[in-house]
Amino acid sequence: MLIKNITLVNYRNIEKINIDLSPDVNLFYGDNAQGKTNILEAIYICAAGRSHRTHFSRELIRFGEESAHIQLIVEKEGFSDKINIQIKNNNKKGIAINNMAVKSINELFGTVNVFFFSPQDLLLIKEGPALRRRYIDMELCQLSRLYAYDLSSYYRVLRERNIFLKNKPDKIMMDIYDEKLVEYGVRIISERERFVEGLNEFADRIHRDITGNKESLEVKYIKNVSADNFYDKLKYDLKRDILYGSTSHGIHKDDLVFNINGINARDYGSQGQQRTVCLSLKLAEIEIVKSLLGQPPVLLLDDVLSELDRSRQLYILDKIKNIQTVITSTGIDDLKDKQNVRIFNVKDGKVF
Fold this sequence. Notes:
Layout: E1 2-11, E2 14-20, E3 25-29, H1 36-48, E4 67-76, E5 79-88, E6 93-97, E7 100-101, E8 114-117, H2 129-143, H3 145-165, H4 171-210, E9 217-222, H5 230-236, H6 238-244, E10 255-260, E11 263-264, H7 265-268, H8 271-293, E12 298-302, H9 310-319, E13 325-329, E14 341-347, E15 350-351
Parallel strand pairs: 3-13, 3-14, 8-12, 12-13
Antiparallel strand pairs: 1-2, 1-4, 4-5, 5-6, 6-7, 9-10, 10-11, 14-15
Helix pairs in contact: 2-3, 3-4, 4-5, 4-8
């Protein structure tokens, strides 16, 4: 899978750019706040249907303009796909694939697979469960449109159930909501379990490699409910749910735990150890995508190298060989000795 070209019009601080990308490494360098991350963000939107930085689409539109436009041309298995996304000031998006409008973001998933790694990902262990759930969900949504459908359906039913709880619910309707919540939730649990199995297969090996075999890594999926007891837990705590107007059990309460040599990295790991765990996880994701799809994703590395020590920089640069990569950095020192690097300078929203 390769991104051949990206065109942006009135996107954030960018008036218009049209860039042909190298199939190898593409380095966008420049000072902070010049627009480097905006290019990676636009690529990510074409894969995920949403920004990783904001929930408000209007923030993606250049100041004073009514709309923004992203076009991405992707080559996969000898065929090309053209993704067009129109972002409007009313916070809505129009999405088309090969000039055919799509009705749901779910139809976009899988057209282009990307792997996004930013300094925020290095906080994966330190932050709360919501960030870890988002981490696993965004990867699975790219890999499976069915998972994306189940996830969006689950949260729609969850919102409706919570509203219903606050308005003196009757038993028949509550049973319907519970049955649908369990139906979607059980499938989500199954896919999350499978993904974590893949993480453990690859991440431990990578982590041992990075640490010189001094540390092992284990990922644990902490389920709030199981497929067998989900429905029973909903019924058991119904009175409590009515009292608080929210659903106390479900996949929206799940979490991940990362153990280094059997010890919880969040509670006892040093900052360096936690960053190494995050690096191992992100590199394991690449291997999972390759094993499932037969080809690697496009890598988007947003100023990550500056956050890592030299040994880890060299490790990640070695691992991205033969994978199309888009990197942002404030300078070119990290890649100046590498071959097959296409270098772009970004200044005031313009690319040179």
